[in-house]
Write a structure and sequence with these properties.
Radius of gyration: 23 Å
Number of strands: 37
Number of domains: 2
CATH class of the largest domain: Mainly Beta
Distance between the termini: 40 Å
CATH architecture of the largest domain: 3 Solenoid
Strand content: 35-45%
CATH superfamily of the largest domain: Hexapeptide repeat proteins
Shape: flat
Bound molecules: zinc ion
Strand order of the largest sheet: 13-15-18-21-24-27-30-32-33
Amino acid sequence: MKNYRKLEFEKIGEQKRGFITALEQNKNIPFHIKRVYYNYFTPADVSRGYHAHKRLKQVLVCISGSLKVKVDDGNDVEELKLNNPNEGLYIGPGVWHEMHDYSEDVVLLVLASDYYNEEDYLRDYDEFIDYIKNDDKFSDGYFKHDKAIVDSKDIGEETSVWGFSHILAEAKLGKNCNVCEHVFIENDVVIGDNVTIKNGVYIWDGIRISDDVFVGPNVTFVNDNHPRSKQYPDKFEKTIINKGSSLGANSTILGGIEIGKYVTVGAGTVVTKNVKPYEIVVGNPSHKIGYNCQCGQRLSRENQTYKCKCGKEYKKSEGKLKRI
Ligand SMILES: [Zn+2]
């Protein structure tokens, strides 16, 4: 799996009025953006780059003019031309890159997943080759810490698995997930894209987690509501966490529960029954205290409409909140 690729962005508008292209984190930019910089007035005879990063992810967008970027992941070497403001080049960790042939009017915009950190740079080519070859960190397109155990072959690209975490062979994880330290993921587990699993979470057989879910530190899942030592149920309870929901720190989700999309479960909540979309639930046993928006802010009610400061509006239909 190559750890670099061209990205095409939507070009909104028409020739006679000009165009707009929007870059949005975790949408068309496949990471959380922490730093933006740009490079301009570079003379044509200058070459830049000549390094790789250990962890940093970047997207290069040539806003004006053109340049060539040589990318090298230790296996493939390619020279790519950037001359189109609605096109980007994603460069993930472990990709050596060099920039050449800058045009006079070049403006190169770079979006980066982290702040500047000299320790993240590999500036010597041999050191770069050693770094990527002597380690299977980059071999499958996702990042695995030296001290993580990943038995599964089904891990999406750009996912990170940090130290002292263990993922069993049958588990499936999507793209761009972050599995923090001390996480255990059993076999019959399916996890979507852009999921964050904070430290100290154990995800047992039968648990399904959709895209964009946040699982806070020390969230506890249960897959057998009547456990006895050495007595195994015929099958484990299925627990479903739908898209965009957040499970607060130290909350407990009993077996067989379905949590609707964009739910917030407050810290320390014990969820004993299903939760409908957009609900905020707290306490033990869990109870609803209101609704929140897709964006996470609390909704306020005006007559029959639930409104967010971000502009989104919702209405109730068949007992569930729906976006209008
Ligand atoms: Zn909102």
